Amino acid sequence: MIIALLLVGAAIVISLILLVLSGQYDKIVGSSPFAEKADNGIDEWEREEMDGIDDGRPPLDVQLLTPNKYSRPQIALKEINGIVIHYTANPGATAQGNHDYFEKLKDTGEAFASSHFVIGLEGEIIQCIPSTEISYASNDRNVDTLSIECCHPDESGKFNDATYQSLVELTAWLCRHFEISPDNIIRHYDVTGKICPKYFVEHEDEWENFLNEVREAI
Ligand SMILES: [Zn+2]
Fold this sequence. Notes:
Blueprint: H1 2-21, H2 25-29, H3 33-39, H4 44-50, E1 61-62, E2 82-87, H5 95-108, E3 117-119, E4 125-127, E5 145-150, H6 161-178, E6 185-187, H7 188-192, H8 198-202, H9 204-217
Helix pairs in contact: 6-9
C-alpha cells in the first residue's frame, strides 16, 4: 500500500516537472501574470516597473488601442532608429481625447492614424501602442521610429510647461532605454516637410534648445 502511494506521488511530481519543462504549466495553472501581459502587448518596461526597477521613466498611463487596421495594425517594429515629435494640431484637446480618437478609428475608418505616446496639457503621458509595434504617425519613418504627439493650448502650437517637461523626460528616457542617439530625434517636418510640430518648425532655435535639454537629461 505504502509503495503504491509512493509510486502515485512520484508520478504526480514527474508529471508536474514535465508540464513546467514543456511550458504548459503557465497556460493550465495561469500563475504567470507576466506571460499573459506579454501576450496582451504590454511593454517590457511595465513589467520592469512591477519588478521595482527604477530607471527614471516618467509615469505612463498605458491604454493600448484595440488592434485594428486603422490605428493599431500590429505590424512589428523591428528596429527603433529614431523618435519623431509631433503636435496634435488641435488646440485645447486633451491626451485622452486624442487617444479616444485613435481608438474610434476602428469603427469610423476615416483615417489611418495613431501615435505611440500622447502627452497632455497636464504633462500626463498616455501610451497607445507598444514599442514592439509600428504606429501610423510619421509616414515613411513609421517602420523604424517611435512617435510622440503633444497637446497644445492654442493655435501657436507652443507646448505649455507641463507638456514640455514631460516631453523632455520621455524623450530622454526613450533614448536611454532603446540606446537611441539624440541626433536621431526628429520632427515630423524632417520626414515630410509638414508643418509639425508647428512651434518647433517655426522656431528653429527653440527646437535646438529642446534637443539640448534632452541631451542633458539623458
Ligand atoms: Zn505630425
